[in-house]
């Protein structure tokens, strides 16, 4: 992939020569619009220009299996609507469900569920977000993070999509919807920004940079919790910290060490499996990264005050 492009679909087409499906509406908005809509067909690729004058793009993936690659230097807001959406970048991976969203500021590859994936991605360089109506101060505050996505944020993107689909002058409403979507995300990060003063660094800029590095560690721990054990050595190498320094800094910001965070996430996933499935406890212990069923049972009781057997029985009795 060329660094100056954003790519979707599976077959290449040159900029400005997007071939929509037969009978489909042309996906290109007028050239003077600050926000453009791209609805990729299942077998089309679109290369979009990357530069200071590039507009902000809304990618509406309405076809199962649609993928998208976002280049370096762009900020992307990814919101699943139906099915699981996979995203990967910077040695991290996410499996996002409806009700979640991801804001990311590095190269990213996105792909939806092959049968029923539908998602929105609002993406462009930082200056394109500002040209599209976002407050520069808000953009400077945004942290790359995975978070919950309220229904009203999805509705805002749906409204943006409808505004861009209209013939005529829908640009004013589109700009308002972009500002609204980013504003809601900015508001939800208020508690996270309150932790920045705890981060190491002599200036606010360095502290914010440290927070972003620690968030990437938290994402790596979360991804490890979905698939089992997390390596402390791998985590520390991602931010070039010693294990001891990473543990101290992480605890100072989040009030727990990376290992404590990993165990908490693994036990949270294990409890869902205990209460919502009939899997054997030994299989749950293995899938969540515990060395044995006995070590899993001890950790489970220490955290929740009851054994996995008691938790399953209580869940079965609940209406």
Structural class: alpha+beta
| Biggest sheet strand line-up | 3-1-5-10-7-8
What is the second-level CATH architecture of the largest domain? Sandwich
Strand content: 15-25%
In this structure, how is the largest beta sheet organized?
6 strands, antiparallel
Describe, in short, the structure shown.
The protein has 319 residues and is α+β, with helices and mostly antiparallel strands. The protein contains 12 helices and 12 strands.
Task: Kindly describe this structure.
The protein has 319 residues and is α+β, with helices and mostly antiparallel strands. The protein contains 12 helices and 12 strands. It has helices spanning 126-131, 136-141, 151-165, 171-188, 190-193, 204-227, 232-238, 243-254, 258-276, 281-287, 293-304, 308-317; strands spanning 5-8, 35-38, 48-49, 56-61, 67-70, 74-82, 85-89, 92-96, 100-104, 108-112, 118-125, 145-148. The strands form 2 sheets. It has a 6-stranded antiparallel beta sheet with strand order 3-1-5-10-7-8. Helix 9 packs across helix 12 (308-317) and helix 10 (281-287) crosses helix 11. It is globular.
Describe the secondary structure blueprint for this structure.
Elements: E1 5-8, E2 35-38, E3 48-49, E4 56-61, E5 67-70, E6 74-82, E7 85-89, E8 92-96, E9 100-104, E10 108-112, E11 118-125, H1 126-131, H2 136-141, E12 145-148, H3 151-165, H4 171-188, H5 190-193, H6 204-227, H7 232-238, H8 243-254, H9 258-276, H10 281-287, H11 293-304, H12 308-317
Parallel strand pairs: 2-4
Antiparallel strand pairs: 1-3, 1-5, 4-11, 5-10, 6-9, 6-11, 7-8, 7-10, 9-12
């Amino acid at each position: 992939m060329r660094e100056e492009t954003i790519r979707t679909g599976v077959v290449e087409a040159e900029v400005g020569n997007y071939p929509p499906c037969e009978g489909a509406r042309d996906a290109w908005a007028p050239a003077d619009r600050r926000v453009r809509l791209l609805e990729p067909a299942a077998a089309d690729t679109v290369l979009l220009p990357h530069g200071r004058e590039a507009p902000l793009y809304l990618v509406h993936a309405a076809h199962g299996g649609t993928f998208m690659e976002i280049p370096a230097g762009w900020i992307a807001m990814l919101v699943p609507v139906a099915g699981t959406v996979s995203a990967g970048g910077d040695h991290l991976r996410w499996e996002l469900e409806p009700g979640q969203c991801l804001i990311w500021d590095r190269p990213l590859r996105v792909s939806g569920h092959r049968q029923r994936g539908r998602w929105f991605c609002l993406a462009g360089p930082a200056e394109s977000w500002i040209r599209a109506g976002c407050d520069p101060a808000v953009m400077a505050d945004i942290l790359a993070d995975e978070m919950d996505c309220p229904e009203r944020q999805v509705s805002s993107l749906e409204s943006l999509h409808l505004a861009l689909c209209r013939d005529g002058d829908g640009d004013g409403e589109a700009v308002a919807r972009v500002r609204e979507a980013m504003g809601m995300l900015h508001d939800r990060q208020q508690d996270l920004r309150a932790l920045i003063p705890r981060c190491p660094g002599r200036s606010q800029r360095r502290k914010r940079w440290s927070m972003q590095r620690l968030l990437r560690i938290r994402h790596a721990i979360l991804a490890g919790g979905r698939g089992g054990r997390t390596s402390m050595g791998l985590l520390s190498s991602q931010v070039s910290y010693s294990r001891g320094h990473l543990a101290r800094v992480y605890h100072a910001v989040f009030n727990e060490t990376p290992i404590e965070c990993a165990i908490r996430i693994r036990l949270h996933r294990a409890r869902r499996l205990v209460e919502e499935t009939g899997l054997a406890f030994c299989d749950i212990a293995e899938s969540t990264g515990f060395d044995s069923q006995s070590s899993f049972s001890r950790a489970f009781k220490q955290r929740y005050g009851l054994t996995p057997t008691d938790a399953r029985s209580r869940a079965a009795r609940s209406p």
